[in-house]
Amino acid sequence: MKIEKARISDAAQMHQLINHFADRGEMLPRPLSEIYENIRDYFVVRDGERVVACAALHINWVDLAEIKSLAVAEDRQREGLGEQLVRACLDEARGLGITTVFCLTYKPAFFEKLKFSQVEKLELPHKVWSECYRCSKFPNCDEVALICRFEGEA
Q1: CA 118, 122, 125, 126 torsion: positive or negative?
Q2: Domains of the chain, earliest start first
Q3: pLDDT by residue for the chain (154 residues), tens digit each?
Q4: Residue 53 β-bridge partners
């Protein structure tokens, strides 16, 4: 399976995939309009024309980006697609010169295997809270914050 940048034609399938897990309380929902507005942030894995996995790298600031909306179709889990998508996001962040990538998740163990470390949400810069204010769970967020830093890498 090949990791590719998302196309406009992928948005509806990405929306369905993300919100399938959001409906189960496993991630936050994303409106279709937000996916279209941020389509350039997304990577996808396709099986033919079917989007079977997606993730986004959203740039927050000069040295900070967020991995969000990581979703893998249930029938394609345990194939390493989620890990490949996270690595694609991290590679893009490094290529852009971003030194810190964070995520907010209900699956911290998955990200810890990929060298992310848990942090208190209040340690995240205020810049990241702009989206949180619009969330139905704010201010009682139950996601776990994790960070991956690249400083000092050769």
Answers
A1: positive
A2: 3-149 (3.40.630.30)
A3: 799 999 999 999 999 999 999 999 898 899 999 999 999 999 999 999 999 999 999 998 889 999 999 999 999 999 999 999 999 999 999 999 999 999 999 999 999 999 999 998 777 765 555 565 455 555 556 688 899 998 655 4
A4: 45, 72
The partner residues of 114 in beta bridges, in order of sequence, read none
Q: State the Cα–Cα distance between residues 8 and 32, nearest whole angstrom.
A: 11
Radius of gyration of the CA atoms of the chain, in A: 15
Length of the chain: 154
- pTM beyond 0.85, yes or no: yes
Residue matched to tokens 């992310």:
116
Structure tokens at 97: 């010169």
